[in-house]
Amino acid sequence: MQGTIVWWSVAKSHGIVSVTENGQNQRYFLLLSRIVSAPEQIRAGQYVKFVSAVPAKRPDLLPIASGVTISENPFVDAGADALDSKAGAL
């Protein structure tokens, strides 16, 4: 899943990620301990990609993003379809 950081606390080392899929907006809790790769400074507006989410323990809590990669730039889909379209252009 991919989204953006909407809030980050440097002091508490956690934040909130917003993901929009199929017109539905979902928020996830972001913990420093679940981040695999990130720029030196994490801040709101950066792009996030994560592999899974740990379900919330209670209905009033957010699920936790896991296997998180954070980037200054949007992630580019480099799947098989992207390779096929480049090969067709040659």
The helix/strand order is EEEEEEH
For the termini, the CA-CA separation is 31 Å
Tell me, rounded to a whole number, the average pLDDT. 89
Number of E-type strands: 6
> Could you give the order of strands across the largest sheet?
3-2-1-5-6-4
Strand content: over 45%
Radius of gyration: 15 Å
Structural class: mainly beta
Q: List the total number of helices.
A: 1
Helix content: 10-25%
Q: What is the global morphology?
A: globular
Largest sheet: 6 strands, mixed
Poorly predicted regions: none
Describe the structure.
The structure is a single chain. Strands 3-2-1-5-6-4 form a 6-stranded mixed beta sheet, with no helix packed on it. Helices cover about 10% and strands about 50% of the residues. It is mainly β and about 90 residues long. It is built from 1 helix and 6 strands. The longest helix has 10 residues, at about 80-90. It starts with a strand and ends with a helix. The mean pLDDT is about 90.
